[in-house]
Please model this.
Amino acid sequence: MAVITQLLLFALLPVVATAAQNNPTTQGVKWLEKGRSVLVRVSTPDLPLWNKEEQIGEDIPSALILNFTVSADNKTLLLQDQPFMPLLLPHTPPRLSAPQTSQSLSEFEHGAPKLEDLPVFDLDYDRIAHPRDDPSIHYYNYYPKLTINLLGAGIAGHNALLKDMEQKVVKITLRDWNTVSRASTDPPNHSFEITEVRLWERRAGDSVNPDDLKACTLKSWRCSDFGDHPWYRYIFRQNFDEYGKIGSFRHMLLQRWGTLYARLGFFRITLLILVVASMVLSPIPYALYKGGKWIKAQHRARAEAVAAVWKDDDEDVEGLLFADESLENVYGYEETECQEVFSEKQVGGNAEGSVEKPLPPVPAQTADALEASEKV
Ligand SMILES: *[C@@H]1O[C@H](CO)[C@@H](O)[C@H](O)[C@H]1NC(C)=O
Ligand SMILES: *[C@@H]1O[C@H](CO)[C@@H](O)[C@H](O)[C@H]1NC(C)=O
Ligand SMILES: *[C@@H]1O[C@H](CO)[C@@H](O)[C@H](O)[C@H]1NC(C)=O
Model:
């Protein structure tokens, strides 16, 4: 019965999976240049339309516009003019901002994009690359898929989480023409083309609250989301600054160093390093000398103590003797075993190697062994 249920589950799984991720759409995808540059309109039901003149949000449907463009040398995918694949500095993920439009879907798709004079929102986002975009991994036929899910947006000090399940997730597929039936190089020399852009339904877990993320403390070096490069997927503006993930040990060190550097400048920092280094290094030879003397003294003291034990403490000496006796017993048993083997070999006429075996203590047997070796 359990087996049947399992089989049913396996049979249903693909169906359930496709149902949860149904109908990717290309509505809202507007190519500026096929394979190289594309605008994506992401409807944001949580975001009011920002009125720049009055500095208020109006209850009018709006959308954010993302611009994915391959750089002129084809090596990098830019998002809003920033390197997004590969990342320039994975420890300080790019800060993105996007213009907000009140254009409807059909206006956007059929009209010319007018992006000037629009209010611009700063973004929080979830970025996942599949396979992982670690430059030290070499891929054959590299078709990376990027998933970008907008998690929050802010303007003029107002912030909103984008949690509405109607909001779509952008998936963009690239092709690296420099890896066609060969592996990527180190450092990678990509030649990207954008092959596919689609908007997918959100799934449970795609709307993320920054408070639900694991707290970042000094116990962690970088408070990463992954164990490996590129380390982070949830990029909330409040969690990152120019030194990396706020709260991590790495961030603390870099920030301390940064403020020190800013305060002292290059010359005095160099001087400080020299002074500290000489302070740290100069005691080492002295410490080695002192340490050597100490070890010698310890050694001598122990030798003297052992001598004292042998002289004074009869009980301990007796104990040692007993221990030796019990060892002798053990070896004694082994010797008898050896004897038996020895005599068997003798019968076989094979005395070779028997010379190496410990000779039995009984004089008569020793004579036998000598005889045997004389025979050979
Ligand atoms: C970039 O790719 C386009 C095709 O997508 C190609 O025409 C162009 O020559 C490439 N440029 C470089 C520098 O490789
Ligand atoms: C899209 O971005 C590219 C570079 O990142 C830029 O050259 C282009 O003008 C942008 N297009 C629009 C319509 O904003
Ligand atoms: C990188 O790839 C381009 C073609 O896309 C090629 O012209 C160039 O020589 C390559 N550079 C290196 C360092 O391999």
Observations:
- The CA atoms of residues 178 and 230 lie 22 Å apart.
- Confidence is low (pLDDT under 50) at residues 1-19, 314-355, 364-376.
